[in-house]
Amino acid sequence: MVVNADSSDSSGLSGSSDSSGSSDSSRASNVSNVSNASSVDSGADSGRVPERAAADAPARSRAARAPVGRPCSVASTLGVVGEKWALLAIREMGFGNHRFDTIARNTGAPRDILTTRLRALEAAGVLERRRYQDRPPRFEYHLTARGRDLGPVLQTLAAWGDRWLTDEPPVDFRHGDHALDPALMCRGCGEEVLPGSMHVHVRVPGWDLAGPVD
Fold first, then answer.
1. Are 186 and 193 in contact (CB under 8 A)?
2. Which pLDDT score, from 0 to 100, does residue 214 have?
3. pLDDT digits (tens, 9 = 90+) for 86-111
């Protein structure tokens, strides 16, 4: 399910030498917000944290922890990993691909947006950067324990997509000598959790299943 890292990718991302990143920034120069995001991208693997990104990181983190509407861990989690490029980047790191260029290529994410997502995931403790080159300084992205705990989430999403969205699964997850068939199990009783077998108890004061309680 997790393969070896792509050892052939040695390019990394450097603000001064990555021509594709410069091209992306040039194409976005007439749009101020994209241009600002591109300026963050230029330092993605250089070890330099742009002031704007550093200032915005705490605000993003606070926003992820402050759910709007019903207080719920689903909402809080989606505030961290609920965007497409974030989950696809986590998928690539789970596959053993750790360098920016490889993640950008395999996800298809715009480089400036991917940089922003990686910075947010790092601020949330989902991934960490590890230096693999000193001159110029370049880094790889690796999942932390918090990030690796998202593995079952991706496997469940893949299983749902295999069942409902495609006739031929594009990726075959293996568990030992057989195809993985993920299921949610209750450790308390050892039984599979099936639809309709659970009851929800709302613990937050002022809320019930229907919504806010007056």
1. yes
2. 83
3. 999 999 999 999 999 999 999 999 99
Cβ atoms of residues 63 and 77 within 8 Å: no
* CA-to-CA separations, 107 to 84, 87, 103, 114, in angstroms, rounded: 9, 10, 6, 9
Q: What span, in angstroms and rounded, lies between the C-alpha atoms of 126 and 146?
A: 5
SS3 130: strand
Q: Please state, in angstroms and rounded to a whole number, the distance separating the CA atoms of residues 157 and 165.
A: 11
Per the structure block, which two tokens stand in for 132?
A: 């693999």
Q: Using the CB atoms, write b or e for 22-52: b if 16+ within 10 Å.
A: eebbeebeeeeebeebbbbbbbbbbeeebee
Lowest-pLDDT range, 37-41, 88-92, 204-208? Answer: 37-41
pLDDT at 30: 44
The answer to whether the pTM exceeds 0.85 is no
Largest CA distance in the chain: 61
Q: Confidence band (pLDDT; 50, 70, 90) for 72? A: very high
CA–CA dist 93, 103 (Å, integer): 8
Alpha-carbon distance of 45 to 189, in angstroms, equals 47
Average pLDDT over residues 45-55: 48
Closest CA to 3 of 171, 121, 126, 125: 171
Cα distances (Å, whole numbers) of residue 3 to 14, 59, 146, 153, 173:
26, 35, 19, 18, 11
57 close to 123: Cβ distance less than 8 angstroms: yes
